[in-house]
Amino acid sequence: MPGRSTPLSVILVSSGSKGNRLLFRYPYQEESDKEVVQKNRTRNPYALQLPEDDLNDCKPASSIRHGKLVGYSDEILAHILTTETGLCDHRFELTIDDVKFVGQPTLIVGGGRKLRRHDEKTRRESRTMAMFNLVFVLHASADPSVVGCYHDLSKRLVLALKHEERRCGYLSHQAVLMMSAHDEVAAMPEDAEESPFSIMLQKSKLCRDLRHVFNGLCDKGVIHVFINNWIEVSFCLPHKVHNVDQMVVIDPTMIEQSLLAIRPYHALLLLEDEKELQQSLPKDCSPSLRRVIKWSSPLNSLQRLSQDTDLALSQVFQIVGHMVYWGKATIIYPICGSNVYILSPRAPTSANSPYHEEFRDITAGGFLTEALAAFSQPTPFSDVMNIGEKENEAEKVKILVWLLQKRLLIQLHTYVFLMIPTERPTQLVNLQDKHSRPSPSSSSASQDKNSSASTNPSHHGSTGNVADNMSMDSDELSTSLDSYSTLSLDNEGHGHSRQKFMDMLKENLTEAERQCVMNVPAAKKPEDLKLFARLCPYFRGRHHLEEIMYYENVNRSQVYMLLEKFKQVLVVCTHQDAATVAYKEFL
Amino acid sequence: MDPGKLECIFFSEFHPTAGHKITYQVPEDYVSRELFDTLHVYIITKPELQNRLITINALGRKIIGCPVNIQNDKYSRNALLFNLCFVCNASTDTAPYEPLVKKLANYLLTLELESGFLSNDESKERLPSILSDLLSQLNSHGKCSIPINESNTIHLKIVPPTKDPQAVLEHHVPMFLTDRNAYDSSHWDLTTQQILPYIDGVNHVQRIATEADVDINLVKICLQTMLYYGVITIVPIFQYSNVYITQPDINKLAEDEALQEECIKYVTKNEMASAPPLRSIMHLYGSLRSDISVKDLCLRFDPRSMNIDERHLIQFGVLRGLIKRLHQYPVRVPDRVDQQRTQPLDRYMNGHFNFDEICCKTGQSHQELEDYVENDPHIHVLWK
């Protein structure tokens, strides 16, 4: 069963002084289909009309067979797809039972003064055609975003054709070729099996182009044609390129959102071989694109890539976004030893999936199952065993890159939440709200392992006490800070910096949270508290450690130490990158 | 997806003298003469397209119709052609209306064949009021029942397209999404009534079938129906050997206060004692990793001492999408030495079955299966 984003057919119709004509359709019906269709469609004039048949016929016969459009004669297609002038130059969308026709009917106007001065022949030909329409036939249940993409493609091709028609009467010329093929077949003896469309394919370049377009859409979802060897039309159907047929609902803005999720610390992972990709590029493509492809490495961040290629970061982003859209690359976090991977929920566990063969080829006889088993546990990449040859890092990375290219793995990231023991904030809230309720018994506090909370003197719960406590804390802090400043080399501006990070804490944390943080033993050490103050805006579970490290320019061990020191108030969770979950599904 | 409102309903026909025209429409003059003339090809169609559901999306409108053709000598042109169309905004998802249009066309066809409803001018006069009833009732209630004559009543209901419910398997555990007492159990069919008492979020399907003494296939069908109506959900069977990982939605628990309250209430073991702090709950969720089973979690942190019921903790997490169960799939790598080895369990070791399924199918305990897998060096376990 072909996917919902695959077209059923492509049809070119025109209307003019010779009436509505179906010029070309691809794929044209096979003879065997035709017989069946005719059985269904043609009505025997002598047959009894049984209206009951229509009543019982709740489910009409499908117009789709073997992924092709059936049951529509050329005449009826020409009739419904050539539209009144009122509908021209607008989006055209017609659904009949389970097929949808999408196109862009276009008028061929006189073409302004320029064309009038053209030679007599062109003018005569252009007058025979008043409008034309290039229609893609889709499944009626195709997602609206898919329909939108096809309309876009139809519009592009139509524009190119219109331009060529105005420039040199290309469409009229091709139409004459197609018409002559129709006439040729009509003149043949009746039992001739030749289809006019196969004659057209030999004679007309436009027909071959349309066939190429259709096959490209069915095959990979990527099209690259030159209309009349002149106008380039390239198009990519993201749904097909990224192979998301199985997704039920696709948000049309998803790709854009995904591209926005790209950060400078991400890396570009090519999905195709670099050389093949370079060769497939059009000859006039931007040299920057070639440079990015040449220098990209799954080990290096985009920032590094920008330095290597000597391009502005924003330009690298644009190129990367472009490549991701076209399905030539994907975005990952740069491969390093501390990355943690697990299997993607979509990874095939079955022992006979086609991936196994491919894996055996690239690893010279390795077993994919073994590699997948190796990544089943959330261990850092440097500790993953049993894949590739022992102690061969390059081999290991090669396997990882392959697995990532096939999207068999997802990366886990660590997120940090600032979570304080609940006893104290409720108490504080109560106090602040001036509720004269007795404070909850402090005995329950012992259940939490937060020793500092239970040893804190502010249990007795009066506003004064809290304030005292505050001042006591800050006194302690200032004393320790003094001792620190004697050790420190730059003892200037310490008051300022202390003020600064106290302000940062105040800005980012609630009163109760700040209380708890200050009660953690490590908060007594100013350098720890300073780092905490710097990083605390990221402790709301929205940023993973790698992002924090990038934005605040700290290294992993520093962050880990901080997490350890402040573990009484922090909670750590590990999951996929939230910003890119949808996008990982998609790309 | 919420279907947009119907903008207009019109009845068009092929008039013997005036040709194609809109005879009645509610509200008046919504579809202009020009628009209709542009689109009439798709409304009063050629014979090839009759009795087909046609949607034309053009000029900011979506018109859904199903042209009908009744051939009979009594009509002045030997045929009666008509089409009752719904009009929506161009961006509306019209899929829910499509069956309605088809059904209405059949109603009108029946009426005409039985009593000449449309060809008789007197009864045809009733159409505008029927159309306006249709429009107002469908837009306000999503359904309507309009009596036409003693034998015909137009019953319509907008059914938004829903996904098919997931397949119910033997090892699944059904669980009520809301309080089960909210439903009057007498409304269910007899079989469902029989299994209702056993749905408690603990029993798995196979067990429910045994306990209720109902055939397992019937149980599956009943559960699937309930699943379709969103009454129950399927949770993985709770075992201490299960492994879960947190999902990005865990952020909701940190931010959404209503969810926090609900969560604390749900996971509290003893309601008399003080409720567990959010921090402990969050800490437990955060400690779930794919190398830590629930058993390890209990041994390490002892949730009961914090007044947390681990079963409820896991259930709440799964229901709200905060955590996700990881299944283990044993896969046997083709043996290089002894090819003809045939152990009964080997046929399940192809990656298609997870531990739960194998246990259910073979009646082995989780521990037995684990031992078996452990003892065979050629079997790898994949977690996903």
Any overview of this molecule?
Chain B: This is Nitrogen permease regulator 2-like protein. Chain B: One of its GO terms (molecular function) is GTPase activator activity. Chain B: Belongs to the NPR2 family. The complex is a heterodimer of chains A (587) and B (384). In chain A, a hairpin with a 2-residue loop joins β5 and β6 (99-103). With 587 residues, chain A is of the alpha+beta class. In chain A, 48% of the residues lie in helices and 15% in strands. Chain A is elongated. In chain A, the strands form five sheets. In chain A, strands 1, 2, 5, 6, 7 and 8 form a six-stranded antiparallel β-sheet that branches. With 384 residues, chain B is an alpha+beta fold. Chain B is 36% helix and 21% strand. Chain B has 14 helices and 14 strands. Chain B has helices at residues 33-43, 98-115, 121-124, 127-141, 190-195, 205-212, 216-228, 250-255, 257-267, 278-287, 294-301, 310-319, 355-362, 366-375, and strands at residues 8-15, 19-26, 54-58, 61-65, 68-71, 79-89, 143-149, 152-157, 173-176, 232-235, 243-246, 323-326, 328-332, 379-383. In chain B, strands 1, 2, 3, 4, 5 and 6 form a six-stranded antiparallel β-sheet that branches. In chain B, β7 (143-149) and β8 (152-157) form a beta hairpin. The model of chain B has no long low-confidence stretch (mean pLDDT 84). At the A-B interface, α2, α3, β5, α17 and β14 of A face α1, β3, α2, α8 and α10 of B. β5 (92-96) of chain A pairs antiparallel with β3 (54-58) of chain B, so a sheet runs across the interface.
Give the largest chain-chain interface (CB within 8 Å): A-B, 70 and 66 residues
Looking at how many chains there are and whether they match, the oligomeric state comes to heterodimer
**Topology pattern of chain B, helix = H, strand = E:** EEHEEEEHHHEEEHHHEEHHHHHEEHHE
* Mean pLDDT, all residues of chain B: 84
Shape of chain A: elongated
* Major beta sheet summary of chain B: 6 strands, antiparallel
Roughly how many Å is the radius of gyration of chain B?
30 Å
Number of helices of chain A: 27
Number of beta-strand segments of chain A? 16
Estimate the strand proportion of chain A.
5-15%
Percent range of helical residues of chain B: 25-40%
List low-confidence stretches of chain B: none
The backbone outline of chain B, from C-alpha atoms, is elongated
Task: Show unreliable segments of chain A.
Answer: 31-42, 50-59, 111-119, 245-249, 424-493
Give the count of helical stretches of chain B: 14
Judged by helices, strands and strand pairing, the structural class of chain B is alpha+beta
The portion of residues forming beta strands of chain B comes to: 15-25%
Alpha-carbon Rg of chain A, integer: 34 Å
What is the first-to-last residue Cα distance of chain A?
A: 22 Å
Helix content of chain A: 40-55%
